[in-house]
Design goal:
It is built from 12 helices and 15 strands. The chain is globular, with a radius of gyration of 21 Å. Strands 3-2-4-5-7-6-12 form a 7-stranded mixed β-sheet. The protein has a 6-stranded mixed β-sheet with strand order 9-11-10-13-14-15, sandwiched between helices. Helix content is 39%, strand content 19%. Helix 1 (8-21) runs parallel beside helix 2 (40-48) and helix 7 (187-193) packs across helix 8. By secondary structure, the chain is an alpha/beta fold.
Length: 395
């Protein structure tokens, strides 16, 4: 292993490439690639990688990029791709299909605001628009977490108890283009961590098979139930793979839900991605001042870790959910799932939504302080609060 100062895109590109190379003694690797800001550097890295057995296919659109990756995966190759924003929207049909085909494709998604109006900065709305598809979703805070979680995702997705695709999400520019010191594992170590892929339902050249044909209602329902059962197994498999990762690489890739000073917290902030970095520092300062404030960072969003979130908020009377996303007319998406997680469990808990950092807005310590000031004075929860909105009106 070696420490290098690299961007989040570089970390993702290396992890995808090393994972693909690790399957060279099996069916190899193949992927479809198409550029879009701010993810282009990822596919550029992959395109230059000297794979021993496999092929990188530049295509004419994001839709085709996922189509190529699906074809590779159905054939038993280790498959992956990357995209962002409107590219993900264009790819959406095949993203849905990959999940229902139970293909363990790994995709790195750089979270960027969907347009119009056109905007290249961070917003989680692009990947969260895909939240109801049969994909695992992980939201990463740092370059190291991007690299580690990408490798971890292959192991989880390819586990026969799961066999579902996985999405690794990172904030545009804040992670994708920022350089930090990152521990990069060598190929031999990645080989040890990722066993050869043996997809049980892959195509064979001497055996006729049909994929995606017409199914009767009871057959379609059975497939959805199987996906639901696989999703419920993810937390246990995640834990197992996390332990193997730590034993192999000598570092912890992090829990699906990560807590900071929640053991006796009266107020808990819930955040994901790079917002967690800022929120953690504010919590640290508040703790030094004697305030009972804590943080829950949700890394694994799908399947949603409801039980772990409830456990982390046991002592809290107020929860502030920070959303770098917005569902039109319905508020923040993490907030919606947080409300659902506590329904029927805690009637005494005030859960307030704060829409912040949307469309690339900065989530500064001052913003987090304002959120805490608002939630601490509340006796009841209200409508989602928009933070950082400049109305242009003078006081």
């Amino acid at each position: 292993m070696s420490f290098e100062v690299i961007t989040g895109n570089h970390a993702a590109g290396y992890a995808l490439s090393a994972a693909g190379e690790a399957n060279r003694t099996a069916r190899g690797v193949a992927c479809g690639i198409y550029p879009i800001t701010p993810q282009t550097e990822i596919v550029e890295y992959v395109a230059k990688f000297p794979f021993s057995k496999g092929r990188v296919v530049p295509v004419e659109s994001e839709h085709s990029a996922m189509a190529v990756s699906m074809g590779a995966s159905i054939s038993g190759a280790r498959a992956f791709t990357a995209s962002s924003a409107n590219g993900l929207a264009y790819m959406a049909e095949n993203i849905m299909v990959a999940g229902y085909y139970r293909l363990p494709i790994v995709m790195v998604a750089v979270n960027r605001t969907l347009g119009p109006p056109w905007n290249i900065w961070a917003d989680q709305g692009d990947t969260l628009a895909l939240r109801d598809f049969a994909w695992l979703q992980f939201y990463c805070e740092t370059n190291q977490e991007v690299l580690d979680t990408t490798l971890l995702a292959f192991r989880i997705a390819e586990d026969r108890r799961i066999l579902l695709p996985a999405m690794i999400c990172m904030d545009a520019f804040i992670v994708s283009h920022t350089q930090t010191e990152t521990d990069i594992p060598d190929q031999d170590t990645v080989d040890k961590f990722l066993p050869d892929l043996d997809l049980p339902h892959r195509m064979h050249y001497d055996e006729a098979r049909t994929f995606g044909g017409l199914a009767w209602p009871h057959e379609g329902l059975a497939s959805r139930l199987e996906i639901d059962e696989a999703m419920k197994r993810v937390p246990e498999v995640y834990g197992e793979c996390r332990t193997i990762f730590e034993e192999t690489f000598g570092r912890d890739p992090g829990a699906a839900v990560q807590t900071f000073d929640t053991y006796d917290a009266d107020v808990v902030l819930v955040a994901s991605g790079t917002m967690a970095t800022t929120a953690r520092e504010v919590v640290r300062q508040r703790r030094e001042a004697g305030e009972k404030v804590g943080l829950v960072k949700i890394k694994m969003y799908r399947p949603f870790p409801a039980e772990k979130l409830r456990k982390a908020c046991e002592t809290a009377s107020r929860v502030a959910v920070l959303d770098r996303n917005y569902a039109a007319g319905a508020g923040g998406i993490f907030w919606q799932d947080t409300l659902a997680a506590f329904q029927g469990h805690r009637n005494d808990l005030l859960i307030q939504n704060y829409l912040t950092g949307l469309c690339g807005g900065d989530v500064t310590p001052t913003v987090v302080d304002e959120i805490l000031a608002d939630v601490e004075q509340r006796s009841v929860a209200g409508e989602p609060v928009w933070m950082g909105i400049d109305t242009g009106e003078e006081d």
